[in-house]
């Protein structure tokens, strides 16, 4: 399979050996969001949702997802994370959009892009779960990598 490091000599997927990679500080940021109706928006903002504090629960779910990414994504390495920060913002210009941004950091031999993306996804899914009684028509917005630093492939920053 030539230079593809994710395949063994039989052409089958494998977890990449990172034992020779340099340990560096690595960061990643990802974004997702949920479009909700007015009733859900007001319930989250006013803290009156029946299942509790939606953003607090979603934030904990996002942190847990980042910490457990290797249990969700088969070829990811278990990582010791230095930090996970999840931020929420509202964009109500065209619709009621809850924007989710996740920042993950580690010092290690592999990046944290998957941890940031998994965290953003789990955070959005938790918002949906917490609010679905008031509207199953919510839309989970695209989830994507904003930026990453560290590693041999260098830095990446999405141009918006």
TrEMBL record:
The active site is at 129. It is an enzyme of class 4 (lyase). Transmembrane segments: none annotated. Pathway: Cofactor biosynthesis; molybdopterin biosynthesis. It comes from the Bacteria. Its EC number is 4.6.1.17. Residues 15-151 form the Molybdopterin cofactor biosynthesis C (MoaC) domain. It catalyses: (8S)-3',8-cyclo-7,8-dihydroguanosine 5'-triphosphate = cyclic pyranopterin phosphate + diphosphate. The keyword Coiled coil does not apply. Substrate binds at residues 75-77, 114-115. GO terms for molecular function: cyclic pyranopterin monophosphate synthase activity. Keywords: Lyase, Molybdenum cofactor biosynthesis. One of its GO terms (biological process) is Mo-molybdopterin cofactor biosynthetic process. The keyword Protein biosynthesis does not apply. InterPro entries: MoaC, MoaC_bact/euk, MoaC_sf, MoCo_biosynth_MoaA/MoaC, Mopterin_CF_biosynth-C_dom. Belongs to the MoaC family. Homohexamer; trimer of dimers. Catalyzes the conversion of (8S)-3',8-cyclo-7,8-dihydroguanosine 5'-triphosphate to cyclic pyranopterin monophosphate (cPMP). This is Cyclic pyranopterin monophosphate synthase. It comes from Alteribacter keqinensis. The lineage of its organism: Bacteria, Bacillati, Bacillota, Bacilli, Bacillales.
